[in-house]
UniProtKB/TrEMBL annotation, chains A, B:
The keyword Transferase applies. Its cofactor is pyridoxal 5'-phosphate. It comes from Sphingomonas glacialis. GO terms for molecular function: pyridoxal phosphate binding; transaminase activity. This is Aspartate aminotransferase family protein.
Length: 450, 450
């Protein structure tokens, strides 16, 4: 069994920290032996899941957990429409993009119709968000002839060799590229009243200047448009415009990483960047795109892809396969027919308001923020100094797990509860979540005071 | 519509070269508009496929094509066992590796049982072969502290930013890394009687020396163990041992890229490297692993992964998901229960012998080679000089397509027919293929003589 203590990963299982029971211990040991030392589990006492339905995950003992952390199965686990689409297509044809096929074209038309006001003109498909960001970087390099990259200080964009070099949230043991610059996350809570837009623009300009001082010009600024791993920081509508203008002025592209906020999660639009009234050169997407089926992709302007397309053909055996495309079309159908964007707004407000109201009796709640079905709850040991309270955050996450509610944490200080329920979460389920957080905070503080 | 003429990609559709008919032209035009300029189609007249069954693909007009090019759906299109496994699992649970789940452990046990004689100890999962090779390189860098890479001159290992830099078959417009060295493909046909093992070993040693002369030490030698894109060059059993010893002596890892030869295609073993009685430090796999479902992965020694595992946790949202793992287990079941490795040997021999017999009446056939269900047919304009005949090869591929048989070409000279049928190909289907190639060669030569 690995004895690694992972100081970098939020909410990682740490062997020996809690009694997990004999059966779970045996499974973990078997897993360590079979999958090796690079894999991690979540929670002090990892879950052995056997079934999913709607917002629920069910473990091997039949216990039900409300899954408000999973923005992959964003329509709920095993959504019948997606299951049906996959089963129909997998029994008919599973093949690649070197043949003509209608479903990929339907998917492209549908996705491009979500951005009619922009110059985004083409869909390209990958299997993972990491591949999408990796391909975005390849295209940005070809388009600009440059290599520099600007990201936020706790950004996560993926795990390929290139992308891990601009994913600082992987921790200090994973080297950043010499061509990568970090800018502070745009946190209103920690801005001391400064104008967030001005500050972020200046930070990006300074990063561009620093790259240039080292003989490197920028290929791209890439941001998750709700800054998930930085602590869920949607920020005011429009505040990104200055930074985007700055990167464009310096000759670089702006890449909107919509892997987390995309597909209606913000409750306002299909994509997070649409809050900012700007056109990215490239939009990357992933997680909820197939409600669990591996599919991800990019929307690109003609300008961003033209030279890459001419010189460097793109083929990915599994990407754009007929089955994954059928799943993605079913996801779009469901978002539309179940009116999930509007639902995400309403239920998201209820969730945020409910948690915000807990601040009256829980001093640890420093900030409650978010947009739509994406909520961040920043826990602090002192509301004046806004000191991150990592220990309480970890306790709250694990107490909630024991109460049957699954979420996790994020941010540089590991002190922000990260809540991203399936878009189908009901009002009653919101009440369960709010009550659970209320009780967990009370228990965590009393445990912390021991 | 793109007007690119792709000189780098073998068997690419080139707009305007042939009359494709109004309906296909309209679909291609719609596709170019929606997917942009980086996508390519195959054949002079691209196929619009709507259904697959067994070894057959069926187009939108109901025409049936014998698919002997598809080593993804290696059990045949829409194999009922895999369809059933996917449909059962997708309706039950589709989730990730941060929870405990039994199927991924079963998959790991089954795959590790295929290499009992080696030190390969752990399975890691990705979604694509490119991701597997990208992760192999990340681990090789961490393990060795070095960056150098040696590959063959027309190798293809994938499309990520890092992997495209060591995939010379992508063409001259995609830059190789400064840390990458190419060695000649180990072709017995072009060896002029030289010892293939000695020559390949010396070439790898020279590449190591050249890297060192430039201040770079090798992290890895990576080869497709049947050298697919180099022209299908399985070579004599054991000939790789010297090159592997050389890279180990220089401190680098040996990575066996089994994306093409893996899962029994060689008709001898589960993996291509097993022909050579050696243990890779890392084995990468992909294409046929889920019979079309996106899943790929790596087998790694404890030594190769230990430090990476400690410092750089690995998580990939979709990789190792329960549905893809269920598909992969069904693939292993099917290979075993339908005795497909033995079948690949028998039918592969029949296929190779049948094509080899055609050499008596077709001067263009310079060499017929392969192992199991992987056959390369090298076409030359002169048997003495062994001059590659790219034009005839292209004609043969497209004539066969018109006859209802799908294959493609490969190698530096674009002059090797690449034949990799589903492992379930029948003896009667082999007869169809041999007869088709016979007729196509006759037509191609008569057209070429016009």
């Amino acid at each position: 069994m690995t004895s690694t203590i992972d100081l970098n990963m939020v909410n990682a299982y740490i062997p020996g920290q809690a009694d997990v029971g004999a059966e779970t211990a045996a499974t973990i040991s078997r897993r360590d032996r079979l999958l090796g030392p690079a894999y991690r589990l979540m929670y002090e006492r990892p879950l052995h899941i056997v079934k999913g339905e709607g917002a629920w995950l069910i473990d091997s003992e039949g216990r039900r957990f409300l899954d408000i952390y999973n923005n992959v199965t964003s329509l709920g686990h095993c959504h019948p429409r997606v299951v049906e689409a996959i089963c129909r297509q997998v029994a008919t044809l599973a093949t690649n993009t070197r043949y003509l096929h209608d479903t990929i074209l339907e998917l492209a038309e549908r996705l491009l119709a979500t951005v009619p006001e922009t110059e985004l003109a083409h869909l390209m498909l990958t299997c993972t968000g990491s591949e999408a960001n990796d391909l975005a970087y390849r295209m940005a390099k070809v388009r600009t002839g440059e290599t520099g990259i600007i990201v936020t200080e706790t950004a996560y964009h993926g795990f390929t060799d290139a992308v891990s070099q601009f994913s600082p949230s992987l921790g200090v043991s994973v080297d950043l590229g010499a061509h990568v610059r970090l800018v502070p996350a745009p946190s209103a809570y920690h801005a001391d009243g400064a104008d967030l837009a001005d500050r972020f623009t200046r930070d990006v300009e300074a990063a561009i200047a620093d790259l240039k001082r080292h003989g490197i010009k920028p290929a791209m600024l890439i941001v998750d448009t709700v800054f998930t791993s930085d602590g869920v920081l949607p920020g005011p509508s429009g505040f990104l415009a200055g930074a985007v203008a700055a990167i464009h002025k310096a000759g670089g592209l702006f890449v909107a990483d919509e892997v987390q906020p995309g597909f209606g999660r913000t409750g306002e639009h299909m994509w997070g960047f649409q809050r900012h009234r700007l056109t990215p050169d490239i939009v990357t997407m992933g997680k909820p795109m197939g409600n669990g089926q591996p599919i991800a992709g990019l929307l690109v302007t003609n300008d961003a892809v033209a030279r890459f397309g001419r010189d460097s053909r793109y083929f990915n055996t599994f990407a754009g396969n007929t089955v994954s495309c059928a799943a993605a079309v079913a996801v779009l159908d469901t978002i539309e027919q179940e009116k999930l964007i509007a639902h995400a707004a309403t239920i998201g407000d209820q969730l945020r308001d409910g948690i915000a109201a807990l601040a009256d009796r829980h001093e640890a709640i420093g900030d409650v923020r978010g947009v739509g079905m994406f909520v961040g709850v920043e826990l602090v040991s002192n509301r004046e100094t806004r000191e991150p309270d990592r220990a309480t955050t970890s306790r709250v996450v694990n107490i909630l797990r024991d109460k049957g509610i699954l979420l996790s944490a994020c941010a540089k200080g590991h002190n922000v509860l990260k809540i991203r329920p399936p878009l189908v979460l009901s009002s009653e389920q919101v009440d369960m979540v709010v009550q659970g957080i209320d009780e967990a905070l009370a228990e965590a503080m009393s445990a912390g005071a021991d």
